[in-house]
Amino acid sequence: MIPHSIVPTALSQVSRRRFLLGGLAFGSMGALASHGLTNTPKASDVTDFLILSEFLTGRKNLNFTLARRYYLGLRDQFPDLPDRITNLSNDIHASGTQTMDDYLSHGPTPDARSTATTIVSAWYLGVVGEDPKKKMIAYSDALMFQAVAGALVVPSYGAGPLAWGSRPEPYMTFKEAPDEH
Amino acid sequence: MSTENLHADVVIVGSGVCGALIGAQLAKAGKSVLILEAGPRVKRRDIVETYRDAPVKLSLANMKLQGAGSPFPSLPHAPSTYGDYLEQKGPVKYNTSYLRVVGGTTWHFGSALWRLLPSEFKLNSLYGRGRDWPIGYDDLEKYYGLAEMELGVSGTDDQDESGAGGSPSPARAAPYPMKQVPLTYMFRTLAEKLSAGGYNPVWEPHGRATRPYNQRPVCAGNNNCNPVCPIGAKYDGSMHCDIAENRGAVIMPNAVVYKLEDDDTGRIQALWFKRPDGSEHKVTAKVFVVAAHTIETPKLLLMSKTRHSPNGIANSSDMVGRNLMDTTGISVTMKTRDPVWPGQGPTELLVFNKREGDFRRNAAQYKIKVRNTTPVSQYAATLLEQGVLGTELDRRIQELSAHTLAWAVDFEVLPDPANRVTLSKTKFDALGLPVPSLYYDLNDYWHAGTELAMQDLNRFSQLLDAEITKKNMKFENRQHPSGTTIMGDNPRDSVVNRDCRAHDHPNLYIAGTSVMSASTCMNPTLTAAALSIRIAERIQREI
Ligand SMILES: Cc1cc2nc3c(=O)[nH]c(=O)nc-3n(C[C@H](O)[C@H](O)[C@H](O)COP(=O)(O)OP(=O)(O)OC[C@H]3O[C@@H](n4cnc5c(N)ncnc54)[C@H](O)[C@@H]3O)c2cc1C
Ligand code: SF4
């Protein structure tokens, strides 16, 4: 059993904006840098961050509340985050690619790649920042567990009394399956 | 100093499994029992919450990170051993990590609960190494059985636990209280493939409930046995603390014992403890039991320098703190061709033992175990550090999780008086008490054992169609300290006698793995628990 997310699923606003991927959505990021930072980001900043995160992680249904917390957590630790996001967004646009895998094979700039890694690390590990400022954002919702879901539980969220034994089959499969048999 | 004077029939230092077992049994027999515990009380749900909320998570799979990740409290008067509390003086670091909380270190133990074999009580007479115990397996069999009932052990009956694939051993008067957990895919697969190569899989006996047992639910495969079982399916010492208290024993948390006092007849008259505010309190009793863990017990005895015992209580032999042992180990990582999927169910189960044979004249016996901890977060972090992104990131997390085997080997360590716990001369805790200073080294006997184990692991990699990707031969501490108040018949070279009573003091007992005369390569806690039940029986007869 996958533990249920404790946060509600994304706002409908997000799905509306999702249509805009590749155009307007990233565009508004550019404006952010000049606004100066406030503690409460505009909903649109978070939505833009969410859409960018979905592109970077190849996921379609990331959670708005978590996006907000990752965004705030990252911005706290990296004050230049808005600029970095703008640069990354511009680089993605310039590449003209539609998926993260295509973008990666196209070859991001070193800066863009580094920003992408920072954001993906946060979503995958559920943690933002480096020691000693490491901060926990999500545990069971960390994306890394999705790669093994179906086969392995999130530690401390058991599958149930003595509920194991058959051959583990992860939900996520890949075209080139890891060399089995 | 306080004028408050506490008195009990029996006062016990330490509320770990050993202290709590004795307290529970003596309280049942109607004795007044006071258990003094250095650390605070903790609640399971708080520890689980702290664990889930921690950015760095402690587990047996990331030992190197342990400094950061323990969800258990570290207080000035009872500092955590994660971090730099212990002073290291020897060539080999002895970085053990016991807990100071009500219930003790078993809160985060793996719960492997093994009996020793008859031959393991006779290392010296059989193989000319180390020491013999003054008692044998037959003396302990009954108490092993009682300890298995108390702790609730699940196990596989009728297997040869020596690993030689012979008839069932050691001999048992009764079956395990609970049957073994079901096998996971990985355990089944590995056992099949290695059996085909002539190896004998042994299923580890352990303290996870496989049927509702006392207050414990059935193990639900949370894969979180270390650092904390979220549901209390796995045994820990807090359970006997509850039993002891329900039977009328008093547990006093945040009471750090720093001194025992004897009189000219050798009897212990009193002990002293400090509160976190530094206030000092005296307790008198008929019988005293020190059950403060293998590192802290000798520290307390060495701190107790009195007019009659100028070298410290129970230390006329100068053996207190010496003969520090462990089951110090090595580890090997393999990448398998076929997916094996470690991480389902409990964190350990399958082992390959090499406990008996003439090789023990020249080389340490050992136990090879495969870790079954979900290592997803370590793999994800490493891949991200390497800059892996996109679909490749998910694919590689899955691949590494499914195809990586983490083997760990535990070795017997011989008792050597030079390996020891002393009192630091320069480092003190918030109460002004010296921290333990540790000197530890390993000899050729241990190294010879590692060579034999590596031969097995190389053979494993062939049988499993796997490639060895990493080796760590660098002395991994296995958290199984023993020997520091060693048992023997001769008061000149041992601290306690065959009853775990101090040679020097008729009303002082020492409970814990510190009394073990030989480390063996096995996890020591069931033996310490059996001895504790035996101690309680002795005390019950005396008072
Ligand atoms: C990570 C890990 C995994 C382990 N896995 C296994 C395993 O699978 N199988 C196994 O057999 N063993 C295992 N062990 C070892 C096992 O935990 C110990 O053998 C066991 O806890 C010893 O019990 P004890 O009662 O002697 O000591 P503890 O459980 O350490 O309890 C001692 C208590 O005494 C208290 N105390 C200390 N000093 C004082 C003082 N001065 N005044 C008052 N109180 C004091 C402490 O606070 C503590 O609560 C493991 C240990 C660790 C760290
Ligand atoms: S596997 Fe889970 S439920 Fe079972 S003992 Fe370990 S932590 Fe507890």
From TrEMBL, chain A:
<dbReference type="InterPro" id="IPR024651">
    <property type="entry name" value="FAD-SLDH_ssu"/>
</dbReference>
<dbReference type="Pfam" id="PF12318">
    <property type="entry name" value="FAD-SLDH"/>
</dbReference>
<dbReference type="InterPro" id="IPR006311">
    <property type="entry name" value="TAT_signal"/>
</dbReference>
<protein>
    <recommendedName>
        <fullName>Membrane bound FAD containing D-sorbitol dehydrogenase</fullName>
    </recommendedName>
</protein>
From TrEMBL, chain B:
<dbReference type="InterPro" id="IPR036188">
    <property type="entry name" value="FAD/NAD-bd_sf"/>
</dbReference>
<keyword id="KW-0560">Oxidoreductase</keyword>
<dbReference type="GO" id="GO:0050660">
    <property type="term" value="F:flavin adenine dinucleotide binding"/>
</dbReference>
<dbReference type="GO" id="GO:0016614">
    <property type="term" value="F:oxidoreductase activity, acting on CH-OH group of donors"/>
</dbReference>
<feature type="domain" description="Glucose-methanol-choline oxidoreductase C-terminal">
    <location>
        <begin position="417"/>
        <end position="531"/>
    </location>
</feature>
<dbReference type="InterPro" id="IPR000172">
    <property type="entry name" value="GMC_OxRdtase_N"/>
</dbReference>
<feature type="domain" description="Glucose-methanol-choline oxidoreductase N-terminal">
    <location>
        <begin position="225"/>
        <end position="326"/>
    </location>
</feature>
<protein>
    <submittedName>
        <fullName>Choline dehydrogenase</fullName>
    </submittedName>
</protein>
<feature type="region of interest" description="Disordered">
    <location>
        <begin position="154"/>
        <end position="174"/>
    </location>
</feature>
<dbReference type="InterPro" id="IPR051473">
    <property type="entry name" value="P2Ox-like"/>
</dbReference>
<dbReference type="Pfam" id="PF05199">
    <property type="entry name" value="GMC_oxred_C"/>
</dbReference>
<comment type="similarity">
    <text>Belongs to the GMC oxidoreductase family.</text>
</comment>
<keyword id="KW-0285">Flavoprotein</keyword>
<dbReference type="Pfam" id="PF00732">
    <property type="entry name" value="GMC_oxred_N"/>
</dbReference>
<dbReference type="Pfam" id="PF13450">
    <property type="entry name" value="NAD_binding_8"/>
</dbReference>
<dbReference type="InterPro" id="IPR007867">
    <property type="entry name" value="GMC_OxRtase_C"/>
</dbReference>
<keyword id="KW-0274">FAD</keyword>
